[in-house]
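User: Quick sanity check before I run a bigger batch. Here is a single chain. Can you write out its predicted 3D structure?
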Amino acid sequence: MLTTGRELKQKLATDEPVIGLMATDHAWPFLVEICQKGGLDYLVIDSEHGDFSDELVSHICQIGRLANFPVLVRTISCEMSIVRRVIDLGPCGILIPSVESTTQLDEVEQAIRMPPRGRRRPGGMGNYWLPNFHYETWKSEFEDHFIVIPQIESQTGVENVDAIAAHPIVTALGLGPYDLSADLGCCWNPEHEDFTNALATVKSAADAVNKKVWAGCDGPALRKQGYTFLWIGTATSVLTGALTLAVDNIRHPDTQTTSTQPPPPA
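Assistant: Done. Predicted structure follows.
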């Protein structure tokens, strides 16, 4: 069974914070264990911007499956062949960039579901979640627990967000704050009225259908605003921040350093 997907969905159904990490510039198999030992709830491998091979992504997903730790993958697009290929690598869910319509999600749905409901052609590590390959097994032990998070990253996405949020395959909505602010004409000005209004619209759409919004990177501030599905930065930015803090506290022992380098927006 897609146990990690099922358990992550169960966590998202509560009001407790669900916290994860994005791997964009660097990813390696041991990162799964680091995330698990660090108390995180999930890891996202960024195949949109990261230069990772299919072999590496598949290996990381395998470690996640064996360790019972959720590993998701951000795809390049929602095109069917891309989604099918990513699912074959063995994640428990996908993050989809720049979704602007339910038509795109319909294509994703076709890539996830086995015939007759869809056009999935299973293979690779994605098969290892299942004890057999009967249709009912695919539906009840894989498809019903697979996580899909469309990112809202444009004005068009915001305009269509109510329908996107209500689509049956959507687990949660995702924010793409940097690209969204750029599309709105206020790149990167997170205090701009157009941007804050867009974020409020996305959150209202998710709340209306009892779904969460995936957001980062300032976890404490977002938590105060009512967000509970959070990511704390990229593996690179978190490591850089920790090293900066450690070095500053040694060089300036009388001045406690608390600020770290902010992670880049997603």
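Strands lie at 18-23, 42-46, 71-74, 93-96, 147-152, 172-175, 212-215, 229-234.

User: Great, the batch can go ahead then.
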